[in-house]
Amino acid sequence: MGLWGKRDDMIVHQADPYNAEPPRGALADRMLTPVEAFYGRNHGPIPVIDPDAWRLRVGGAVAQPAELSLADLKSGYPAQTLTATLQCAGNRRAGLIEVRDIPGEAPWGPGATSTAEWTGVSLARVLAGAGVRPGAGHVAFAGPDVAPDADPPQPFGGSIPLAKALAGEVTLAWAMNGQPLPAMHGAPLRVVVPGYIGARSVKWVEQITVQDTPSGNYFQARVYRLLPADADPRSGGPGVGLSLGAVAVSADILRPDGRSVLPAGPTEVTGYAFAGDDRGIARVDVSADGGHRWRQAELDGEAVPWAWRHWRTIIDLPVGETQITARAWDTTAALQPESAEHVWNPKGYVNNSWARLRVTAR
Ligand SMILES: Nc1nc2c(c(=O)[nH]1)N[C@H]1C(S)=C(S)[C@@H](COP(=O)(O)O)O[C@H]1N2
Ligand SMILES: [Mo]
């Protein structure tokens, strides 16, 4: 077993703080990612928290500020369970780094995406209990972990628009895949914001603040922003670039994984596709000739709101090298952009360009 109870074959970008993703194959076929394969993304140390002493403070523009224990949350509100995919904004950055280097940022592959069943209470109900004052626009979350890369040093945080916070799906979760939430993933309580970039799903959440403006936290005001291609990533002040929220349609290939030579002939190609917020996956196309001719992949199972969709198809692999390309369309008919060059940005976020995998057969 690897660090933090993860699989031995995790691709560890950084041991401390722990940043690691599973190999592609570990995400194939199954809706729920086992905890030991679920990616870990941490900006600072994993805090050690005594769950009995822990409290959640709810404040800001509310009629009744509150300080809630885990028992208060469990007894005060009905529990809800939902399946949701988390995707880091840095997912598939490796494809952007191939275009042009992105110094100081981890070369994530497609594995900074995982799906779990989360159990907790709806943020909307907790906010209703506190009484949101009219005119507020955002809900900010803060954890206790101080990231060394934050400038000035500060605990991790971020915010979502009030409308999203009141929509019901945003969950304050204490369990993951039916097990108590592990420390790595935010115990005793984390926010799960389905359909938004992973950074908004604040772990070890201690404070929820209803406010007029988006969070001024370093990780919202300075980081996780989409800068123009020619911007200097170090010179960006607060509020420069686009704030990232809902996840854009993306997809990648999970099997084959391109690491071994395959037998020529009919070969199953599988992958995932994901579109954030209230969008779903409408179609996935696969090409074995670099995108000249496309076939439609089969989508697995039924669509599950807030979750990725696995897909599969069979292609006939000739002897030699083949470039497999996959692209997804969402339910608003948005298509992934064709090339990583077109979406390259200085911090390396949202590489949702077509998935491309070179395989060799004989
Ligand atoms: N407190 C805290 N919450 C956090 C982070 C963090 O560093 N500290 N990382 C965020 C980012 S960038 C992502 S992508 C997700 C990753 O969640 P996971 O580690 O459970 O996969 O958690 C988010 N919540
Ligand atoms: Mo992230």
User: β content, as a range?
Assistant: 25-35%
What is the mean predicted local confidence, pLDDT? Answer: 96
The helix-strand sequence is EEEEEHEHEHEEHEEEEHEEEEEEEEEHE
List of distinct ligands in this structure? the ligand Nc1nc2c(c(=O)[nH]1)N[C@H]1C(S)=C(S)[C@@H](COP(=O)(O)O)O[C@H]1N2, molybdenum atom
Looking at how many chains there are and whether they match, the oligomeric state comes to single chain
**CA-based gyration radius:** 21 Å
- Silhouette: globular
Describe the model.
The two termini are 35 Å apart. Strands 5-4-13-8-9 form a five-stranded mixed sheet. It is 9% helix and 35% strand. The protein has helices spanning 70-76, 93-99, 123-130, 162-165, 218-221, 340-343, and strands at 11-14, 19-21, 40-41, 56-60, 66-68, 80-87, 113-122, 138-146, 155-161, 171-176, 179-180, 190-192, 207-211, 225-226, 242-243, 250-255, 265-274, 281-287, 295-296, 298-299, 309-317, 320-330, 355-361. The protein has a domain at 250-361: Immunoglobulin-like (Sandwich). It has 362 residues and is mainly beta. The site of ligand MTE has 19 residues, from strand 3 and strand 8.
Give a brief rundown of this model.
This protein is mostly beta strands and 362 residues long.
Q: Helix and strand layout, with pairings?
A:
Elements lengths: L10 E4 L4 E3 L18 E2 L14 E5 L5 E3 L1 H7 L3 E8 L5 H7 L13 E10 H8 L7 E9 L8 E7 H4 L5 E6 L2 E2 L9 E3 L14 E5 L6 H4 L3 E2 L15 E2 L6 E6 L9 E10 L6 E7 L7 E2 L1 E2 L9 E9 L2 E11 L9 H4 L11 E7 L1
Parallel strand pairs: 4-13
Antiparallel strand pairs: 1-2, 2-3, 4-5, 6-7, 7-10, 8-9, 8-13, 10-11, 10-12, 14-15, 16-17, 17-21, 18-19, 18-22, 20-21, 22-23
Bound molecules: ligand MTE and molybdenum atom.
